[in-house]
Amino acid sequence: MFLLSRKNEETMDWARSWKDTLFLLLEDVPYYLRELTASISIDGTSATTLIVNSTTGEPLWKPFLYNESCSDALPTVKSIAPENHTVCSGSSTLCKLISWWNQEDSDKKSAILLHQADWLLWLLHGKLGVSDYNNALKVGYDPELDAYPSWLLSQPYSQLLPSVKAPGTSIGHIKEDIGSQYGFPKDCLVCTGTTDSIAAFLAARATQPGKAVTSLGSTLAIKLLSTTRIEDARFGVYSHRLDDKWLVGGASNTGGAILRQIFTDEQLVALSEKINPVEASPLDYYPLQTVGERFPVADPKMAPRLQPRPESDVEFLHGIFESIARIEAKGYSLLKELGATQVEEVFTAGGGAKNEKWTKIRERVLGLPVSCATQTEAAYGAALLALKGAQQNK
After folding, report:
1. Which family does it belong to (predicted)?
2. 345-385 pLDDT, tens per residue?
C-alpha cells in the first residue's frame, strides 16, 4: 500500500502509474533483446520529487511534480542558500523538501528524498537512497565541489538527502526476482540516471561548446554546452555538470502541452501545412497551461496569454509557434548576457522536432541554424548512459 496523506490534490496516483509503466516497458522489450541487455539507466523529470520510507521505499506523500511551486518554503530557502542560487525558486527540489518537512504529520524519522528517476531505478536495483548529480542539482548539490554544501548539510532535513554519483555510474545488478521474471541476465547492471532534458542533449551528440539542444516536449527546455558555469535563480538559469564542461540553460513551462490542450494531433499536422514560416506573426502570446513560469524569468504568478484569438486557426497556431520561438530566443540571449559560451547551432529534440514549419519559424526568430537531432528521444540519451556504465564496469 502507498501511504498517501496529502490533501486537496488530484486523485491520480502518480507513483503507482510510473511504476506500472516501467514494468510495462520492460515487458515491451523483445525477449531476445532482454537476454542481451548489459545495463539499464533511466531519465526523469527534473525536480519531480518523492519523499519515501527509508526502509521500504514506499511513498509517504504524493510526488511533487516538476512544475509545482512550494512558495511557502521559499523564504526559508533564501535565508540559507547563496543569493540567486538555483534552489531559490519555488519549484526547486529543496523548496519541496522543506515544504514537506514543515507538515505537522510528516514522518521525518523514517524518510528519504528521491527524484523520479532515482525511485524508478531503485525498483530495479533495490539499493535505496542513490541519486545522480544532475537530478540532485535542484536540491542544492554542488557539482563543482562534487558534494553537498555546508549550508545545506547543517540543516535538520539534510538527513533525507540521497547519496550522489555521476550519471551513468553502476549502482548494482538488477534484482534477482526482476531479472528472473522479465528475462534479463543476472549480471545486467542498473546505472544512475539523469534528467530528461540532459538525456535529450546526450542523445543529440552535441559535443562542442556553442552547440545547444532545445527539447520541445510538453515543456520547452534549452541546454547549451558552455565552458563557463552560470547560475541565476532570478531567471531560472542553472548549470549542469557534463564531464569537464557545463550544460547551461533552463526550462520554460511553455511548450507542446499547451498545443495539445488546444489542438488534436491531426489538427496540428493539417494546420501546420498551411503556415508560411517566412512571414512573422504579429500575434504576441505567452502560451502557458496554467499560471506560473520558470524560465527565462522565474515568476510563479505569470498568467497565460493567448488573446486575441483570430478567426483563423492557422493564424492562431502560427502565433503560438512564433511566440514559443521568441521565448526560446530570449532564453539563449539571456545565457549570453550572463556569460555563457555564445550559441552557434541548435539541435531540436522531443516531439516538436518533427514539425518542419515550426523549425523554420524558430530558425528565423533565433537567427541560427536549427536542425532536428539525429536522435530526438531522451530515452536514447539514457541508453548512452547505461552503455557508459557498462563500459566503466569492465
Report:
1. Belongs to the FGGY kinase family.
2. 999 988 898 999 999 999 999 999 999 988 878 899 999 99
3-class DSSP assignment, residue 293: strand
For 163, residues 6+ apart whose C-beta sits below 8 A from its C-beta are: 129, 130, 131
The tens digit of pLDDT for each residue in 5-52 reads 444 344 469 999 999 999 999 999 999 999 999 999 999 998 999 999
Residue 197 in contact with residue 221, Cβ under 8 Å?
Answer: yes
Q: Which three cell numbers stand for residue 179?
A: 531479472
187 shares a domain with 235: no
pTM: 0.81
Cis before 156 (ω within 30): no
CA pair distance 391, 370, nearest whole angstrom: 33
Helix, coil or strand: residue 199: helix
Whole-number Cα distances in Å, 52 to 83, 173, 217, 306: 30, 22, 28, 39
Q: Are residues 130 and 219 in the same domain?
A: no
Same domain flag for 354 and 218: yes
Q: Are residues 274 and 152 in the same domain?
A: no
Cα distance between residue 133 and residue 46, in whole Å: 11
In this structure, are 269 and 181 located in the same domain? no
Domain total in the chain? 2
